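Hello,

Our lab assistant flagged a job as stuck in the queue for most of the afternoon. It eventually completed. Since we weren't sure the result was trustworthy after the delay, we are filing this so someone can double-check. Below is the sequence as submitted and the structure that was eventually returned. Let us know if re-running is recommended.
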Amino acid sequence: MAADVQTPVELAPPVCIAHRGASGEEPENTLRAFARALSQGATFLELDVHLVHDRLLVIHDDTLERTTSGTGPLAARSLAELRALDAGHGERIPFLEEVLELAHGRARLNIELKGPRTAAPVVRLLQAAVQDGGWRPDQFLLSAFDWQRLAVVREMEAALPVAPLAGKGAGGEVLEAAERLGAEAIHVSRWSARQRLVAAAHERGLATRVYPINRAWEYDLMVRLGVAGIFTDFPGRALTWGALAPASA
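-- returned structure --
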């Protein structure tokens, strides 16, 4: 992880973002995990979305084995079959609309566009949530490793915040992508969280948020780097580590 720690470039404490909900304690990306995170004080939830049979399902993988009682690709099952699967402790794979209903007025949502063709239907759903459901555009944030999906978001709705995702070895390319997209932040792996990247992002007016941070010493290092937010599987634990800031819901 980052070795070149110098003076933090961002003075505000990092925001705690519940990664797939309280996924270290509950089945990830389920209503149970999101409810647990909210009950622990999290005000920023991260989740993953695939488009399957024209519905937006909250699940990380495009196959079922790791997180549900099913097997095979998502697309190989009917919607009724997918919803009948056990996603852990009797939970179902949620629809995105169900997470919006749970989190409304309680948390900001970082929606990661996992599958192809997710961008347009997610934007349409969020536009409806803003127009008819009492949400504000800034209560959402769309992210993706495939930055072209964020370009689709930007073309459809300029008011929705976006943040490109990058893994190990992130550098100038993610900063350039963020600038092209008019992003509010870059989201990077803890292995890419270097002082020079955080400082370069800050110079461009970009926040840096880092995933996953699940141990106190990692959190301490992120504070020293001056990152704006951390993604954690244990939001209840993380909120006890120090000056973690709540996000405005």
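-- support follow-up --
The delay was a queue issue, not a problem with the job. The result is valid. The radius of gyration is 17 Å. Residues 15-49+106-238 form a domain with the TIM Barrel fold (CATH 3.20.20.190).
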